[in-house]
Amino acid sequence: AEVAPVEEADCSFIPHVYLDMAIQNRYMSDGEIVNPHTMMMYTAGVAFDCGLYADIWVAQDVNEYNKGSKIGKWDPEEIDFTVGYGYTFEDVPVFKSLSTDVNWSYWRYPHRSQFFGVGETQKRIAVSVVSGLFLNPGLTVKWDYENSEVQIVPSISYSYDINDKLTASTKLEAFWFNKNWRYGRTAKHNKVRPFFYNGSGNGFATVVWSVALDYQINENFSCGPFAKLGFDCNHATRAKWDGTDNHKSGVNNLVGF
User: Fold this and answer.
1) pLDDT in tens, 127-181
2) What element of type H or E holds 115?
3) How would you write 145-203 as a 3-class SS string?
4) Are 196 and 168 in contact (CB under 8 A)?
5) What three-state secondary structure class fits 220?
6) Is the backbone of residue 31 left (phi > 0), alpha (psi -120 to 50) or beta?
7) Whether the Cβ atoms of residue 44 and residue 56 lie closer than 8 Å to each other
8) Are 110 and 79 in contact (CB under 8 A)?
9) CB count, 10 Å around CB of 61?
10) Cβ neighbours of residue 131 under 8 Å, at least 6 residues apart?
11) pTM value?
């Protein structure tokens, strides 16, 4: 879950509680299809005025895609726990402002060892910086310190208030992976493989474009549709996707609400 950093330094002991629920036609992570069928995603968390926050995110199967791995219908496929701190520096020379976020996350995959062939948990540190310039250029770095996996994600984004209740937003992200970054197994080889199928090394693997509409029902509730397109960046990514649930054209899609 993404939490916007706050500007105030005073930390109230009374937290803000946030809840989010989404239904989407498939589970796509960093441009790659993880589960090709309908999924439910939930987030619950608390945030303090000073920028501290903690949340839990759950990806729940509403299908029997992973039945062979003993993940049944309505069982959680992934559970992520995150604690972090965000802060916005105002009046920064050149950049206007800088919104920063540092977090630690613990990802748990129930029964993952049965179908991925690797451990059931992952621990990652993420640092992100977003400037206040036009299109909000930003950079996020994720590090799995137990497996020497590194991901670097440059991004740009834009939002527009159509009226006082309706907001349209879009974001473009490019995903760079080091050669150790793993994404489970391929259907063809049935074992753990690097994200780059041929193990050729580091590089950009995918680009993801996101669009969304958000309708503010009242002060506390909002809703709206969203969509994503994931594009492969090179032949190694396309080869890795061969024989899996990813689209043969090299372009994946996702819609949700």
Assistant:
1) 999 999 999 999 999 998 887 889 999 999 999 999 999 999 999 999 998 877 6
2) helix 112-115
3) CCCCEEEEEEEEEEEEECCCCEEEEEEEEEEEECCCCEEEECCCCCCEEECCCCCCCCE
4) no
5) coil
6) left
7) yes
8) yes
9) 22
10) 92, 95, 96, 97, 98, 99, 137, 138
11) 0.84
Q: Which of 240, 226, 257 is nearest to 32 (CA)?
A: 240
The model's confidence at residue 190, banded by pLDDT at 50, 70 and 90, is very low
Rounded CA-CA distance 173/165 in Å is 26
Torsion (CA) 176, 178, 179, 184 in degrees, nearest 10: -70
156 strand-pairing partners: 172
Q: How large is the C-alpha radius of gyration of the chain? A: 19
**What is the spatial distance between Cα 154 and Cα 156, in angstroms, rounded to a whole number?**
7
Residue with tokens 């706050």: 6
